[in-house]
């Protein structure tokens, strides 16, 4: 009897030790899972329809992306080599990193209807991660991209400052902590520039660093220049990044004269119109207006052509 009791106790002790070891291993694995999920190390395929883009202000502008077609082709042919990062919100997902990759998947699904593009590989970030950390994840990824512009970084810093109700300098120090001091200084100048004239610019991401720094200095030294610059941009309505940059450069070459805006030398306006007869390219420059389209104007009745030109000049008060 004593021997049986002793054996029973030993077996129970072994079972308890085994159960304790299993619990310890489960705890370790649970902690490791939580850690991996917090760092985006758990990858799953998530439905693209369930990924929202609302919590974070994106640091990518809305301008055309010349490399987007190549990205789509690569994903279509080879798949996605770098998963996006999403926050698990409990009732869906919030995008943290991978705006262009997600956009490419949505475009491919719309174009092909293939099921493989209905879901996207994503690293899962734990629900409720601090907003600052989510922004840092997005920004640090894009800082290594050479095509992210100072204007885009400045706009994001200003938006983050408003969202967190802090000043822009603190927002820049927080979001761009991994950037050098000089780069953070440039971002601050562009944030100020976009705050002054950003609403009037169509292609802010095209502004080179040197031009942006010259512009903000000129605007701060001569406050009247802001109204005059906005008037010139409205008057010329540039349709390309090159045209807008040309205006910005030329505005810096003249000094404000009271409330008078002097015309820009060698200014040029280009328009593209769609007509029932086909596309029309219109170029207006000093001393000339040029129309290019698939039309033989030499065959047009001279009186109709004269009436059309007179109507145009009347419309322009010329």
From TrEMBL:
Residues 49-143 form the ParB-like N-terminal domain. It comes from the Bacteria. PANTHER family: CHROMOSOME-PARTITIONING PROTEIN PARB-RELATED. This is ParB/RepB/Spo0J family partition protein. It comes from Tateyamaria armeniaca.
